[in-house]
Amino acid sequence: QVQLVESGGGLVQAGGSLRLSCAASGRTFSSYAMGWFRQAPGKEREFITAIGRSSGNTYYANSVKGRFTISRDNAKNTVYLQMNNLKPEDTAVYYCAAGIPTLGPYDYWGKGTLVTVSP
After folding, report:
1. pLDDT mean across residues, the chain
2. Which of 6, 88, 92, 103 is the right S-S partner for 40, CB 3.0 to 4.6 Å?
């Protein structure tokens, strides 16, 4: 069992940056690929990015490529999402997830953290 807790969300102006963190419980964090998703109001949840178990492989949605960076620190059981040049359309609840295949399906999900980008 893996429990995930996101943090770092908040209100930021367009063009600004935020770094989200996702802390995982358990001693098997390094066994899981990690992903970030988001869900904007009235929209379906969408995939943003994923990282393999050893950080060797990363994947990004076109909408965030070049602006967002995923990383992980297996010693700290934490995955990060650095978000730069934020846009109002990035406003959403951001979720982290853990699974065995890098691109899912994911077995464990956090409860999310809200990111609001003002114009």
Report:
1. 95
2. 92
